[in-house]
Amino acid sequence: MNRREFIKGAAIMAGTAPVAGWKSYEQSASGAGIRYSRTLPVKVETDVMVCGGGAAGVAAAVAARKAGAMVFLAEGFTCFGGLGTAARVPVFMQWGDGERDLACGFGTRFRERLRKAGALHGGERAFDFEAVKREYDRVMQESGADFLFQTRVIDVVMEDGAIGCAVVAAPSGVWAVKAKVYVDATGNGDIACQAGVPFEKGDATGHMMPASLLSAWDGVDWDRWARERPKRPQPFGSQLARAAADGVFKEPDLHMTGLYRFPNGYATANIGHVFNLDGTDERSLTRGFIRGRESMEEYQRYFREYLKCGLENVRLVETAAMMGVRETRRILGDYVMTLDDYMRRAVFPDEIGRYAYPIDIHPSSADKAAYEKHREEFDRLYRYRRGESYGIPYRILCAKGVRNLLVAGRCVSVDQKVQASIRVMPACYITGQAAGFAAADAADRLSGDVHAVEVKGLQHRLKDFGAYLPNA
Ligand SMILES: Cc1cc2nc3c(=O)[nH]c(=O)nc-3n(C[C@H](O)[C@H](O)[C@H](O)COP(=O)(O)OP(=O)(O)OC[C@H]3O[C@@H](n4cnc5c(N)ncnc54)[C@H](O)[C@@H]3O)c2cc1C
Q1: Domain C-terminal end among 289, 319, 349
Q2: 356: number of CA atoms within 13 Å, CB side?
Q3: Distance from the alpha carbon of residue 321 to the mean position of ligand 1, in angstroms
Q4: Is the CB of 190 under 6 A from ligand 1?
Q5: What one-character DSSP code corresponds to residue 162?
Q6: Ligand 1: which of 152, 280, 425 to mutate, most ligand atoms within 8 Å of CB?
Q7: In this structure, are 127 and 167 located in the same domain?
Q8: pTM of the prediction?
Q9: Is the domain of 355 the same as that of 445?
Q10: Is the Cβ–Cβ distance between 25 and 165 less than 8 Å?
Q11: Distance (Å) from CA 31 to ligand 1 centroid
Q12: For the segment 106-131, what is each residue's pLDDT rounded down to a tens digit?
């Protein structure tokens, strides 16, 4: 797809066509609509409003406060951490390139806090959800940012090419927030979409990576598992084919990362996929939760009756309250980072960090050929050698056509292949902290214009904060 086709396609998605789910409320089945208007109280006025308190949102809020801005963060759920806590994503992906840390600044500081709190396990990648939630609480309280849980941004009001205010729905009702700059860290790019910024979703055919409903288990005899487990490459998946042939699974799935070991027979898991899920469509999400919970019963039977080796008494404790959505909207920014940039280990003049996780596109269907293509891409085709990394340009954070909006985290302006690398948590800390510093600067000196941020100054502030910027 060339650039013109890309922009045209993206513009259609951001227009009136109800593809995106968000805009679909504008059209009812009968074509009828109602007019609804009321005057809302402005309950918060601030320099920087951060929308969403996942990995990227917390990093953005902390960085903007560090730069001296007044910050308000609205989180729709009940805790910080987003997918990493509420959806129970069980591990941090790589912090560095095999030779050095790359997610420096907020990321490495947060890791140090988790280390001290004893919250990291398994080579410092697996973590205790509850401890991570509490550490995010503390970080945010110490930062001096104002924040609210159960406060969801549901719309924006535009004024002269900028967001004039954001409308939130909270337990007390619907009200507005006025800020000089907004950071969209919702993962789904909700705010950018509400502001009319074009976006893309999925591959050329619109297929998105499947989601996973993550889970917690107990009753694992880990010592027996260590002694008796089947050999690599897929100890947890070794009996999948047999169980599938016996009809254990409604939708047999070859992908099996297995259970992560915790003390006292406890385990967390990222197993199975929910296919054909659109994380911006509530009907699709509802179907996905039902299917995800059903499939965990299938896995429990699989572990007990087929895998055994210490899993005979395994028990599903809980599935996550938030769906594990890998990808939805990729918001179009001043630059779109592509596979070509990834392959050439790009260096950018406006670099705000570097990262190195491989391109990890989970196949959009359960068939064997798609799975084997995924393994080939992940293990060989796109994999970096030690010490290699790609640059992340500031322009992928600047939402196209809106003066005072930055995006951070998994919805930044990249193609699907790069999203499959940059979406993981350490990278979200990198884009989040850069968005925070840039937002503070734009609010302070540039009447909110994030596109006018002077890159050298931003890079200096990031370096002072500890960011890894060898080319700046
Ligand atoms: C199944 C699965 C496995 C993964 N495995 C790993 C892994 O092993 N290691 C790793 O590092 N990464 C992993 N990832 C990726 C990683 O967890 C996420 O991509 C990353 O956490 C995204 O962070 P974020 O801050 O951009 O968004 P999110 O974590 O999605 O946070 C967004 C936050 O915004 C809130 N929000 C959303 N909309 C609104 C709104 N309108 N108003 C207010 N608040 C809103 C949400 O409640 C949420 O708290 C995995 C992802 C999935 C789905």
Answers
A1: 319
A2: 17
A3: 13
A4: yes
A5: E
A6: 425
A7: yes
A8: 0.93
A9: yes
A10: no
A11: 34
A12: 999 999 999 999 998 877 788 888 99
